[in-house]
């Protein structure tokens, strides 16, 4: 069947489409129907089913006789370690950890925060939680204690599972002090923490801490428990427009059905193939495509602890692909920009056998044409951009290579996947003509596996996503659809920026800057960056009578953002100005500031209060190397 036929088949009968896809899942009690719309605009999928995620990701493969198949390849250039875990070994490890958690009283519905580096045990921890119906919430290692504390207070976990350290090139990141700091800051206190000790830096354990292996001693392995189809498998926090992150809820059954469907139809792999997503378990790409989808589908997944460059050099990706026989590879464009910067002609790839790789998949940020063309030429495989979000958990628009490889149009992540009726709307919620820009919205209901709501915040869910365009999910992205139905993603419509494929909130950074005692007012914008796509840049107006120099305050706010949000914010640019450009009604002209910074043509809005302020902004930006004529 062609893509058009598959998509039309879904449009004609979504219920039949998803019930058919659901046949690939092993149910304890099969769903009687797919969509539950009694609470519209809040929708659920496969709600009356009974199922277990871990059983589908691990146990069923062992029972089918594939226990010797490799489930996880661990490749860690930062430690020099490599290992392989079979499905049978994974089952044993997961059941043992789940048994330990259960023995400490963790039951279905309890939350467990996971704060782990890129080691196989991070996947073991996630799977152990879903095995017993506990709801995990993984927090990315590059976040500071304060961000961890915010998530602890929102998810109110019974337990935390943490590694003793992460390893960044040139430095060891001790997790235990960050964890202790977060628990101190948080109002909610978890009952205990499980610590996975790494030889690079063992943590000192306190009275609430239990060592990973100790937890498992003398307790029986835990079986998979049945949960209902709408039971949350996990919560993953993502940036919104304010400093309070949104807890995206992932429902169990829809997650299983949708992710399993994507592995063949989008990533074009068959069970047994090696699939590699070079991301981090702290992000949605890591949840969906390092942990769950490859395992549910019976593939081998690669857990890579390293960077595209510097661990040890720009050949690392090629080595991992060749050495582990990777068939489909997924990463963010920024990783390729980093490699290209060090090996612009891609000479070093010639030393590696890439002949088995079928395709490269890019997502997480806009894939710029230069990067796509370079990757196509150097790697000699199709490069498929695809667009999705933490909220959806899988592709909204992509190239369905396993159904039919569509011609690549550079600059477009290709076409809407079955399940998604993507439309471009104007401010009034009307569809714009083909080729015109507008807000990208998806007609409700969203497909299985996408967020049914935000954790403990259904009102916020409705307000943030379902209110601007009644009957639609507002993606927060703007773009257009061409005559061939190809989608183009142009920009965010909110204060979210994308730094090296990491989604960050400028509003959240502004809250940190505003907390500095000398800062009267501030604004953070995302400026274009050749490597990371965007970088945050802060403008500060200081209080009258401030006795500190501008340099002092700038240095302090940079440190403050690193302490409060974390190194991942990459906040290193700030300047002091007398005033911020505003409209007469007091709205800060952030978009105009971005245009000035990026050296783009702009027109000051008619409502601007004082156009002279823009010149001041330009001068300040020029001092930082931006706003070049
Ligand atoms: N734990 C602790 N610190 C972390 C971290 C983690 N898991 N991940 C990143 N950091 C730190 C980095 O060490 C860096 O700190 P520094 O300011 O002291 O140098 C800072 O956070 C910013 O990290 P990053 O944005 O990753 O920049 P980088 O300069 O270290 O690397 C790239 C740049 C392009 C190589 C890197 O961003 C990359 O590999 N990106 C791949 C894309 C990706 O994984 N995207 C995820 C979504 S698909
Ligand atoms: P995240 O939730 O971290 O995955 O970030 C999702 C956001 O990243 C989207 O809303 C887009 O703004 C951006 N994004 C992700 N993939 C793409 C893509 N292929 N092209 C353009 N932007 C993308």
From TrEMBL:
One of its GO terms (molecular function) is propionate-CoA ligase activity. InterPro entries: ACAS_N, AMP-bd_C, AMP-bd_C_sf, AMP-binding_CS, AMP-dep_synth/lig_dom, ANL_N_sf. SUPFAM superfamilies: Acetyl-CoA synthetase-like. One of its GO terms (cellular component) is intracellular organelle lumen. Its EC number is 6.2.1.17. Residues 3-57 form the Acetyl-coenzyme A synthetase N-terminal domain. Residues 64-443 form the AMP-dependent synthetase/ligase domain. It is an enzyme of class 6 (ligase). Coiled coil: none annotated. Keywords: Ligase. Residues 509-587 form the AMP-binding enzyme C-terminal domain. It comes from the Bacteria. Belongs to the ATP-dependent AMP-binding enzyme family. This is Propionate--CoA ligase PrpE.
